[in-house]
Amino acid sequence: MKKELGKLLELQDIDLRIRKLDEEIAKGYGDLDERQAVVDARREEAVELGERLEVVGKEKGDVAHDLEEETNRLKDRQTKLMNVQTNREYQSLLKEIEGTKAENKRRQEEIERYTEIAEAMVAKIEELNNLSDGEEALLVEEKGKVESLAKELDAQKAKIDKVRSEKAGKVSKTIYKRYEQLRERRNGMAIVGVTDGVCQGCFMNIPAQQFNEVLRGDQLHSCPTCQRMMYHKPMEEE
Ligand SMILES: [Zn+2]
Fold it and tell me: What distances in angstroms separate CA 57 from CA 11, 46, 113, one per listed residue?
């Protein structure tokens, strides 16, 4: 059984190395994805802002159209004013003219406000797009680096994988199956040391009798708490 334990430990060591390489590759791509997501969000913000800008432009156009119409009407009324017959008519027309002038002044101000808003939006859109362009150029570069690193790590993995197959082939089928199940469920650690009666996987005590048996190493034991396979790991090794 001691021999079997040794093989398992070697296998686990290899698996942990492969796992680390996988994580490193995934991290590289994950970082890229995260940065791309920031760029995408910014692009989307620019598009949404562009849509709002269109609305603002349309509203401004409506007001400008009203202003033009009312300005023409004002001219008509002013012409009419020269030809009125009665004072009552004159006063009424005058009142209308004053009203329209006030309205037009308000329209003019509104147009200016729309213009300011639109200018700010255009500037913001440009800023967002510039930032996105810059970041995307960097990302292209970064992607190249990640891809070449991934290639390198994949090559390392391929080498280790070969050794792994050889090692795995030497472990008994039943134990190998158990090892694989535990590895999946226990975050890559299927076999752990027991030091001074404490499982180094879950840090719980194991029964004294079981610890004695683990010490002897004749049989493969599983931790009663985390179910990992155990081997005796003396304190000095740490
Ligand atoms: Zn345990």
Answer: 68, 16, 11
Q: Give the CATH fold of the 14-164 domain.
A: Helix Hairpins (1.10.287)
Helices (H), the chain: 2-82, 87-170, 173-185, 208-216
Ion ligand 1: residues, Cβ under 5 Å: 199, 201-202, 223, 225-226
Distance from the alpha carbon of residue 204 to the mean position of ligand 1, in angstroms: 6
Give the global pTM: 0.71
Q: Where are the domains of the chain?
A: 14-164, 176-237
Place of tokens 């030809």: 83
How many angstroms is it from 42 CA to the middle of ligand 1? 47
Q: Which of the 8 DSSP states describes residue 219?
A: S
pLDDT means per 10 residues, the chain with 238 residues, are 88 95 94 96 97 98 97 94 92 95 97 98 98 96 96 94 93 94 95 96 96 92 96 78
| Cα distance between the two ends of the chain | 23
Please check whether residue 37 is in contact with residue 78, taking contact to mean a CB–CB distance below 8 angstroms.
no
CA of 65 to the centre of ligand 1 (A): 79
